[in-house]
Amino acid sequence: MDLSYLVTPFLAWLVAGSLKFLINSIRARRWAFGLIGYGGLPSNHSAIVSSTAVLIALREGLGHPAFGVALTLAFVVMMDARSLRRQVGRQAEAINRLAGEAAGHEPLRTRMGHSGLEIVAGVATGAGVALLVFHGLR
What we know:
Structural class: mainly alpha
Shape: elongated
Strand content: under 5%
Helix content: over 70%
Oligomer: single chain
Radius of gyration: 17 Å
Protein name: Divergent PAP2 family protein
Pfam family, one: DUF212
Largest sheet: none
Mean pLDDT: 89
Number of strands: 0
Keywords: Membrane, Transmembrane, Transmembrane helix
């Protein structure tokens, strides 16, 4: 098995997560350990699936069936990040407002989903990692 297909999405996840931590830390002007998780720039999920799709395109070609599968998966993940998970975050905000200071209510995490810019940044991150792996392992 070609390990680049395992290494590339892992590296994309690591790079995107590190960038997200740095960006959040700069914005918060403190170490942003509490902001690690869903949402934010760049999208980890988009970076992971796009790195895989780009690596397959570079290695196997755009006409290969595996590229079609990877591209389909990437679109499903990115649409989910943009719409469904964003709606979950909005619902969590509403539940937190309704519950207010109710006894025993631990606030739900509201930072879910991604904006279009966060998804595009994730795709760029994933594509960049795939290009580095492709050219670095030649």
